[in-house]
## 1
Amino acid sequence: MNELPLGLAAAARLIAAKQVSPVELAETALARAARLNPELHAFIRLTPDLARQQARAAEERQMAGTLKGPLDGIPIGHKDIYETAGIPTTGHSRILEHHVPAQDAAVVRAWAEAGAVTIGKTATHEFAWGGPSFDLPWPPARNPWDTSRFTGGSSTGTGAAVAAGIVLGGTGSDTGGSIRGPAGLCGLAGIKPTYGLCSRAGVLPLAHSLDTTGPIAWTVEDCALLLQPMAGHDPADPSSADRPAPDLLGGLEGGVKGLRIGVIRHFHERDITASPAVRAGVDHLADVLRAEGAVVSEVTLPPLTDFHFAGWLILMSEAHAVHEPWLRARFNEYGEILRERLALAALVSAADYLQAQRRRRQLCQQVAAAMEDVDLLVTAAQVSEAPPIDQVPKFAGLESPGLTMPFNLTGQPALAVCTGFGVGGLPVGAQIIGRPFADALVLRAGHAFERATNWRAKRAM
Amino acid sequence: MPEPMPEPLFDAMIARAGLVLTPAQRASILDASRYLTAANERLRPQDQVALEPATVFRP
């Protein structure tokens, strides 16, 4: 076996039918990592011993007919802000270069209990914010569609590893777009779940009122399979919603007939001007959903700039609160990008932060009102195809509004899907957004789109 | 895009944060402070000082 099956769901079906062994999948993933990682830098650490141990256990269950479910025997990667017992968890930072946690993060534990096979720890922007950086102990991940290009951040390595077919899924985190960015630029599916749906216990924080954990994978169906064991209340995470875990899989094939979908056209056409391929991708998504039976209209939200500024003031304040002790004591151990971003964050006053939270509450109310007549929203995921990795500005994100931050502010579920390819054959993506805790509906619509199109048939490498 | 933060205020806030910057770092961060100015100009309510700033505490 030279390459993994195309997608997690496809691999799970082969495992269930005993047509492929979890050990064979793990060895393929490890061999592919050995071959591709020197160029892609998707992983900062491989875990072959753990992978082989977990794969052998999964194979025993396969042979005994006691598979745990669709994740059993599936090779995955964990963003290196997810703590892993006995395995260094660095945040891709010199600050935690030798940090070895005693316990797994709740999500790592959940996936392991579902039988997933950990191939390694994936690259990230430093502490999920500072990158792409070239002055850290490990280089930044590169985009498998063109290795001179940026993956999007901050879940850089997970995006690269899934797009390169080294693993079939992985963890990301999303504070301002860090799952949907790599999913969009690497031609993948990735969901930022509703704030509070998935535990963040054991995940290095960036900004507590915005941080979410979630999966990146080849398809929306794969994301649903990965998200299911992540979802549910965890008393160890104070933000965790105390409500029953939703069924994310039962209605996945339900289609979009009769659903009302609002396109936030002003976000990507007027508030900022997305590239022609990105704009065409949003139109394509809307057209496909309409052809599948949805009722598509246009929706107007507050200007993207308001979400942008409120989001960044909140993110910076909360990140500074997290890093303040290290920033005082170990300032020059951070990479240049995060060091300067955190120093900038130190200039945000308490009054600035509170005014941003005030505006956030208004924005949540305004989005909720705009969604009274629609079930889902659609807009672009990224402004353009992936830029050259060495041309990403130091204060990227602050310079012009991004399309993902609005739904970190509102806490809504937002899914990125690949909508085609643009300049240089680089992928482009769009977002599907639901009401809070309507994650299953978002996944259903994304799956309907992928089922009706052929974008998932093309590999990056 | 607005001007960067006034330099005396910038230096005071950096000192309050306990940071010591090189001249190059100071220049780079001071220049970027214009984004904060822009954000605050956009988000601050004008003449509405009693607007609830989203910090209601419900015991």
## 2
Amino acid sequence: MSHFSIFDGGIVGIYLLATMTVGLMVRKYVGKVEHFIVAGREVNVYLGIASLAATEFGIVTCMYTAQNGYKYGFAGATPGIIYALAMGIVGLTGFCIKPMREAGVMTIPELFEKQFGPRIRWLAGVVIVLGGLLNMGVFLRMGGEFLVNVAGLNTGYLEITMTGLLLLVAVYTILGGMLSVLVTDFLQFVVMSAGLLVVTVLILSQVGWQTITDTVQTHCGSGGFNPFIHNDLGWPYIVFNLLTCTAAVLTWQTMVQRLLASRDSRTARKVYTRTGFFFVCRFLLPGIWGIAALAVLGPQQNDLLAMPKYLSTHVPIGLMGILIAAMLAADMSTNSSYMLSWGSVIYNDILRPIHRGLWTDRRGLLCNRLIVAAIGIFLLLFGLWYPLEEDLWVYLNLTGAIYFSSISMLLIACCYWKRANNWGAAGAIIFGAAIPIAFLVLQQVPATKHYADRIGPYYSGIAAFGIAALAMMVGSLIKPRSRTGVMER
Amino acid sequence: MDSPWYAHGFWLLLTAACIVWYLSVTVYVAIKGFDDIRAMLTRLKNGSSNHIDTSPDNQ
């Protein structure tokens, strides 16, 4: 039976009330579309760190990183180290993010228009929104699974609980846009971090470090400590994660939006450099929760639900309220930022041919608010009430690979290769999407499934990046230059 | 086959570093981030939105 009590419910209630109050308080400062999307570009370093960390840690992150710990031991935290390295290097060098912030754009596709023309801007916007929304579509159900399991609620309440939570998030995001997202992110960062730290220390003191390492050794062998020699991981896994994490650091709209909202490129780089190590914590701490679940409950559990099941019976009253509030904070900050980010691309890039940047701020704000509301409705219908039939991991990989391989190539070429043009950009988008989709088809058709199994998801993902880069180079080189020497679009 | 001692040591050190770093950053960001919010709202109230990148990198 879960340890969730009325006292814990009170803690959660106070947290929700505080979030709604601060979220709604700042709505009066939103007077322009620029305030709504990038907070008037007034974000300084520490608010940027809090917002970026809160946005990039949701319940779905906690579930997957704990699952990695349960399945692969400490080696499952390797992507966190790769993320931290990528953020540190990108932050220190300003690779891509410096020219992007200095261009004064509000979204990544807006930057692409300068080099590749309006059609590529629109197409990139569609790819970003499709990849992002489909990826986010599963967040709500995963969050609900966690909360229902940890709080010991009847599973019949999952939909209604998450619908209520989404409504709260939607209200302050629709009214206050990025400003409400930032101030609530700040509060959520503090609550989420306190919960993560307290529960981790509790688990380490309850289970003990020796038991944790013994469990990894027993169930995963030496591979549980070293991803290079793990049977299910190895070099392809490392290279695939290196490419994916670097691409995410450069192009994931929810991360990039914090950079574009920052005061200047120097602030943007500091936000990345100083948040980098958070990504190690983001993977390692919940990974330890997953290993503890393996130590206490054994290997026969559902690997995704083992961690919440373990927490429901081993976190005491009082701390349970802090844990639930922390996870609600993590989920609310992620949902609000994601809704706003994809909504920004829809307004700024996909609907650009309609408004042409000529609408008044009042009309633009109304349109942005309606888009965020529509995304909320989509999430409810697709993510919560629609049962997902496909394998979740394949689904997430596919949506991520379509986005990352093409958009990262476009961004790098746009920033550093003058010869890059719309032929190359279109090729990168088409071929970057074709490889992961072809892999999924191979996997689903019984006659070709053994080919897909032989290739594996990591080689397929690496190939998507390679072919997108090749398409960008070949497409750009074969397009004839105009007589004036300027690329034709 | 048992893992070498340095593999255990690496993850122990990394876990300790995570807890110490995260705790310090949470406290520091909680204080400095509050100041950032106040300054941001004051600038927005005064209508001095920062449209142009004035980073020293560009000067």
